[in-house]
Design goal:
The chain is an all-alpha fold and about 140 residues long. The protein has four helices and no strands.
Length: about 140
């Protein structure tokens, strides 16, 4: 039994993007104890963008860019990347503002929620480039 190349592209791009995220944060902070970066959202590069674009790239290479499956994969990737930049990023900024207000209130009864992070356009772009690279590698490795 072999793993579907489509699933391989998704998993590999996610692992590469999350690994790069860990390395970037570790080098930036000069501290390699940030293992949480291996699964947290936000920061450089976007693993969501990487995985959806890797799938789209592989579908385009294997099934053609004129196929209905490619159109669906492209729409899926576009929605995910738009959401990462516009919706999740806004929610994350609002979460940080709420955290600040709760801390300023100094009310011990209020629980400080964790603010989820979205992505900047650059983080999404780099994630998409990781996805294209991984999608191409999986294509050539499985054909």
């Amino acid at each position: 039994m072999s793993l579907s190349p489509y699933l391989l592209a998704i998993i590999a791009s996610w692992v590469v993007a999350q690994g790069l995220k860990y390395i970037i944060v570790a080098l930036k902070n000069r501290n390699f104890d940030h293992l949480r970066q291996l699964y947290l959202s936000g920061n450089m590069p976007s693993a969501h963008s990487a995985s959806t674009v890797a799938l789209m790239t592989l579908v385009g290479l294997r099934d053609g860019t004129d196929s209905v499956v490619f159109a669906i994969a492209a729409l899926f990737a576009a929605i995910v990347m738009y959401d990462a930049i516009m919706v999740r990023r806004s929610v994350g900024e609002q979460g940080i503002a709420i955290e600040t207000l709760i801390k300023l209130a100094k009310n011990k009864a209020l629980v400080v929620p964790r603010a989820a992070k979205g992505h900047t356009p650059l983080e999404v772009l780099v994630g998409a480039l990781v996805g294209v690279a991984v999608g191409c590698i999986v294509f050539f490795a499985t054909n």
